[in-house]
Automatic annotation (TrEMBL):
Pathway: Carbohydrate metabolism; D-tagatose 6-phosphate degradation; D-glyceraldehyde 3-phosphate and glycerone phosphate from D-tagatose 6-phosphate: step 2/2. This is Tagatose-bisphosphate aldolase. The lineage of its organism: Bacteria, Pseudomonadati, Pseudomonadota, Gammaproteobacteria, Enterobacterales. PANTHER family: D-TAGATOSE-1,6-BISPHOSPHATE ALDOLASE SUBUNIT KBAZ, N-ACETYLGALACTOSAMINE PERMEASE II COMPONENT-RELATED. One of its GO terms (biological process) is phosphoenolpyruvate-dependent sugar phosphotransferase system. Signal peptide: none annotated. It comes from the Bacteria. InterPro entries: Aldolase_TIM, GatZ/KbaZ-like, GatZ_KbaZ_carbometab.
Length: 118
């Protein structure tokens, strides 16, 4: 899956021309939530923005046990099983700053946050 900034920049351009628009988005790593979101976006023939928080998914596995690469693979596999084109997926992250590691020294928390967004 290539980066899908194009979907978002096209939406901004439409908005600037006075057209109303939006994007369907969910912030979850739960399989049933993702399945419902994929089914809805597929039925509406729209792109889908899926975000996970750094608590859910991080370079150490988060509470789901998934790294960003694992999450990407999981979402793509689920999308494929439902016939949703991966070209319509936009994956992102929410709350990716150092707060996830607030129990660590600031320098280590910042280093972890920096590593997460690479």
């Amino acid at each position: 899956m290539e980066r899908k900034v194009k979907h978002l920049t096209e939406m901004v351009e439409q908005h600037k021309r006075g057209n109303t628009n939006g994007i369907y988005a969910v912030c979850s790593a739960h399989p049933l939530v993702l399945e419902a979101a994929l089914r809805y976006a597929h039925s509406q023939q729209t792109p889908l923005l899926i975000e996970a928080t750094s608590n859910q998914v991080d370079q150490f596995g988060g509470y789901t046990g998934m790294t960003p690469a694992d999450f990407y693979g999981f979402v793509c596999k689920l999308a494929g099983s439902l016939g949703f084109p991966t070209s319509q997926l936009i994956l992102g992250g929410d709350h990716l700053g150092p707060n996830r590691w607030k129990n660590l020294p600031a320098s280590q928390a910042m280093a972890n946050a920096d590593d997460l967004i690479r």
